[in-house]
């Protein structure tokens, strides 16, 4: 068990570009979550998958954001036409049947210049 | 809507002393969980302790314990015999009624040698 893995760890992009992040959950976990954490704030929920089904999305997830988990294993989070306000740490977490064993990855820090 | 409030942006404690971090929350759910997470600098968020709302007994994990006051919607974290490795951001979180966690803004804990 290598824990939740996120790639890349850091991403710098120009405003207007598209970016994609990847999350590999703990292998036996069927639930996967994306959170966003801006400076000085706690993480905010973005979306949640159970296996390949996206079951809940936050209103924070505008139409520029899309998340997928095609085979119920790894997940990708894509941001189209990035804006400076998208600069944040994007955290992925996974769990089994309940949040009680939730494990977080180290996050992907996005900087939009 | 669920909310979590951490009123102490920063706290400091001397090594080997005890410190208490405050958290209040608001929820309309009758069954919910409360969590304290630790986020060291540039490292992943890890679970410190959790409390099921239906349990009256306060949770304890080694040097970490909580004071759960359900009627007051208060959930404070006590760290005894503080160690240098306890220095981190601490986040209080609430889960109830859905699969997402709602986090507070965090408290930065400094441990002085």
Beta-strand residue percentage of chain A: over 45%
Radius of gyration of chain A: 13 Å
Q: Fraction of residues of chain A in helices?
A: under 10%
H-E string of chain B: EEEEEEEEEEEE
Low-confidence stretches of chain B: none
Distance between the termini of chain A: 36 Å
Describe the global form of chain A.
Answer: globular
What number is the mean pLDDT of chain B? 94
Q: In percent terms, what proportion of residues of chain B is strand? A: over 45%
Count every beta strand of chain B, where a strand is a DSSP E run of 2 or more residues. 12
Contiguous uncertain segments of 5+ residues of chain A: none
Structural class of chain A: mainly beta
Number of strands of chain A: 11
Helix/strand order of chain A: EEEEEEEEEEE
Biggest chain pair interface: A-B, 23 and 21 residues
Report the radius of gyration of chain B as a whole number of Å: 13 Å
């Amino acid at each position: 068990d290598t824990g939740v893995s996120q790639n890349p760890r850091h991403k710098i992009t120009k405003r207007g570009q598209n970016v994609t992040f990847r999350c590999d959950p703990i292998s036996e976990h069927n639930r996967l979550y994306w959170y966003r954490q801006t400076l000085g704030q706690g993480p905010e929920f973005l979306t949640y998958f159970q296996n390949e089904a996206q079951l809940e999305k936050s209103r924070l997830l505008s139409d520029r954001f899309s998340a997928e988990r095609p085979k119920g294993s790894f997940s990708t989070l894509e941001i189209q036409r990035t804006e400076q306000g998208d600069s944040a740490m994007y955290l992925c977490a996974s769990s089994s049947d309940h949040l009680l064993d939730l494990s977080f990855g180290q996050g992907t820090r996005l900087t939009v210049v | 809507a669920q909310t979590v409030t951490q009123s102490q942006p920063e706290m400091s404690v001397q090594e080997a002393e005890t410190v208490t971090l405050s958290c209040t929350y608001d929820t309309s759910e009758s069954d919910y969980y409360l969590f304290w997470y630790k986020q060291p600098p540039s490292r992943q968020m890890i679970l410190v302790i959790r409390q099921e709302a239906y349990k009256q007994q306060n949770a304890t994990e080694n040097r970490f314990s909580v004071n759960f006051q359900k009627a007051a919607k208060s959930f404070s974290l006590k760290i005894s015999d503080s160690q240098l490795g306890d220095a981190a951001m601490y986040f209080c979180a609430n889960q109830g009624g859905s699969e997402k966690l709602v986090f507070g803004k965090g408290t930065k804990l400094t441990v002085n040698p």
